[in-house]
Amino acid sequence: MRFIHTADWQLGMTRHFLAGEAQPRYSAARRDVVAGLGALAGEVGAEFVVVAGDVFEHNQLAPQVISQSLEAMRAIGIPVYLLPGNHDPLDASSVYTSALFKAECPDNVVVLERAGVHEVRPGLQIVAAPWRSKSPTADLVAEVLDGLSADDGVARVLVAHGGVDALDPDPTNPALIRLAVVQDALARGAIHYVALGDKHSVTEVGDRIWYSGSPEVTNFDDIETDPGHVLVVDVDATDPRRAVTVDARRVGRWRFLTLRRQVDNNRDVADLDLNLDQITDKDRTVVRLALVGSLSVTDRAALDACLDRYSRLFAWLGTWDRHTDLAVVPGDGEFDDLGIGGFAAAAVDELVATARDGDDDAQAALALLLRLADRGAA
């Protein structure tokens, strides 16, 4: 028995830094990766898809988002089982109970609304732990596993969402999934694979316990180390122990990169320019720069010109303010050859002195002056 484990689609997600046409392209990519699971399922012979929570970004979605999302799920072509998670719980405002969702939900899509065992077909069951609020007061997985005994003729897949106590830094969270409870259920044969959602990077928690991660990136690489995957899972129905193999498949196309650089001179600026130039698929790449250093006004103008150019090529490029610390110190003689005199030269000298005291406006004015004089081009 083979199926696809995925999670955290978060359809309808927006990223505040994406402007203009980049946001619609990013939204379309998130839908496209969902629809593309049909081709992957056909390639590997998958029987169904489980989505372990956070199918949608939240419950208050524009009708167009709901309709387009359901159409993407229809395109998968095989049964798709959706688990409500913390972003889209089964509360009073649930998207899953909306008139639009119910009217347009394709026949191949099943919402795992009820906690407990769901029959997929003879010999195969899903054990679901859906969220009914954003803040559960108990371990939902422990509740559905309580009293669940082994059935020698049935393979069972647990589908759940949330943090596992062995990985989560907040042990006081009552909703944490207790790893020991899950491992005990696996050991006694009550379940045979655990499909988890919540972490956006593919993660093996333990034997037969996996987070699939989000199929398309949602955050920068210092937070999400390995996004953009789905898992192809095999459960050997001929083996009494239901042996499992897991194959991570990359399906995402976007990247959110963080680049940290020391920039102290024109060579460092040129190196950064080269690094940015060598990044492929710029229109699907978001770049956050953490820049530290001390530059002359001329070199800072060259840096600004460089960043201005690449901001037009990437889906988004900008500095990470909390981790960027650039000092601008006018160099000796840096403004001696502007070809000006009198009052104008005195004004430039005053700006230089003010800039050396750390005045941002003076530094910006000098940088603009150099660019207008055509000496700060990248």
TrEMBL record:
Q: Which InterPro entries match?
A: Calcineurin-like_PHP (IPR004843), DNA_Repair-Maintenance_Comp (IPR050535), Metallo-depent_PP-like (IPR029052), Mre11_N (IPR041796), UCP033093_metalloPase (IPR014577)
- List the keywords (alphabetical): Exonuclease, Hydrolase, Nuclease
Q: Which SUPFAM superfamilies match?
A: Metallo-dependent phosphatases
Q: Which residues cross the membrane?
A: none
Q: What are the protein's GO molecular function terms? A: exonuclease activity
Residue ranges of domain Calcineurin-like phosphoesterase in the record:
1-164
Q: Which Gene3D superfamilies match?
A: 3.60.21.10
Give the family from UniProt.
Belongs to the SbcD family.
The protein, known as = Nuclease SbcCD subunit D
Annotated source species: Mycobacterium celatum
What is the phylogenetic placement of the source species in the record?
A: Bacteria, Bacillati, Actinomycetota, Actinomycetes, Mycobacteriales
